[in-house]
Amino acid sequence: MDIEDIRSQREYVDHCKKVHSYSPAVNKILDLSASYIPDAEKAYRDGGKQAVWCNAIGWQVPLVYALDTIPVSFSEMGRLSDKETMLISEDYYQFPVETCSMVKCTVAQWHLRRNTSTINRILGNSSACEPYNLAWEIMKREGYDVYNNDVVYRGPTVEGKRLEDLISFLEEQIYDIA
Predict the structure, then answer these.
(1) What is the mean pLDDT of each run of 10 residues along the chain (178 residues)?
(2) Alpha carbons 61 and 82: distance in angstroms, whole number
(3) How many domains does the chain divide into?
(4) Which of 82, 114, 131, 171 is the most buried (most CB within 10 A)?
């Protein structure tokens, strides 16, 4: 397969494995990236671990791990989708064509997994883009257990009582996740 023939991220991973066939390390990393979601879902399904779909970046990761739960990156799930998967969001959920393909792929993957024994909790963050905020609302309607924490912005002049209130609010948001 030539680079010009690639139509999905999965095809790109396969292409990279061929291009970097000289390196067992690169191929192992590519294999790990392809098995990350199925491995996390299997650990959850087999009852060995709790898991939650989340950004899997920043402060969420240590918090989720501290709760003895696997943080599973929903953007990774979307990244490894294809055009046919993305079309589910456009056709079934009526997402406009212009909507971010990552969000559409993620929503479609959740759609395909709904009412199955896979991970059914989603930890969103309102600092994400509006299409993701919409996606969490849709998935809540589809039966997923969704928690979307709010974020705190401290303006350059915020001090005193207002700053204390912001810190208190953020602490509440973090405790609500637990």
Answers:
(1) 81 90 94 89 90 84 91 83 89 93 92 88 84 91 90 86 90 81
(2) 27
(3) 1
(4) 131
Per the structure, the complete domain to which residue 38 belongs is given by 3-177
Distance of CA 43 to the CA centre of its chain: 17
Q: Which residues of 97-116 are buried (b: 16+ CB within 10 A; e: fewer)?
A: eebebbbbbbbbbbbebeee
Q: What is the CATH number of the domain that holds 60?
A: 3.40.50.11890
51-96 pLDDT, tens digit each: 999 987 777 889 899 999 999 998 888 777 888 888 999 999 999 9
Candidates 117, 113, 44, 68; CA nearest to 36 is 44
